[in-house]
Amino acid sequence: MNENILIQNKQSWDTMADSWSGSTALPEYGCLIPTEEELGLFPDLSEKKVLDIGCGSGHSLKWCGDKGASELWGLDLSSKQIDIARQFLCDNNYEAKLFNSPMEVSCGLPAEYFDVVYSIYAIGWTVDLETTFHNVASYLKKDGVFIFSWDHPLMHCLEANDNSLMFKESYLMEEDFSYAQRGNPVTIKNRKLSTYINSLAEAGFLVERLVEETDRQVMEMSAPFQEGYYTPYKAKNFPLSFIIKARKL
Ligand SMILES: C[S@@+](CC[C@H](N)C(=O)[O-])C[C@H]1O[C@@H](n2cnc3c(N)ncnc32)[C@H](O)[C@@H]1O
What we know:
The protein is an alpha/beta fold and 249 residues long. The chain contains nine helices and eleven strands. The chain is globular.
């Protein structure tokens, strides 16, 4: 496991935490893609135990609480995010069990305990996808559900330039790359969709749904060429995020 990347990313997430509150949280799965309200991937959450991997500010956990979940658990690499989540959930009269830990290590979460484990825009931060998926499988009960969303791998490869979309990176290369996020250095790895799906299979999951869609409103609007990362122009040509729903066998 690359400890140095985790240390750098933790420092950056601690610095960014305040500016991120609630930005990527259920019922949203990501940018310009259908929401959970439209997709209905989650089971009925009443009396269900849920775990959020990369829980950030706790907004997704509150959404689960509002839907009737009986226990709210979360983990996050950033101690600042955990503090923010704890306060936010407390302000909303929810009690949650929150762990400050990288998702790549076992941090004392109970085994075969959760009905639903989910992760909204956090799984892609892992420095070890295989171990992370094995950890998630160990936390879930048999037949438990794992749902996560992340940037579509094409986001790293395609750039809007010169009135068109061009490949700036190979889809096949799975290498660490570094950039500044809100002015803070972070390092992340782009992975192919097949890497996510094959790693899920190896960890004992059955993939029930892969969502590669742009939301209907964007598909129906005109979206002229525009530079930028998350733009309607791109979203009309390919999904900006993907979502996977898998079940532990
Ligand atoms: C985009 S935010 C997720 C927001 C969150 N889903 C919500 O509902 O508010 C990504 C989160 O992943 C966390 N993170 C990054 N690397 C991580 C790792 N290796 N292990 C656990 N959490 C990580 C960050 O600290 C950050 O809070």
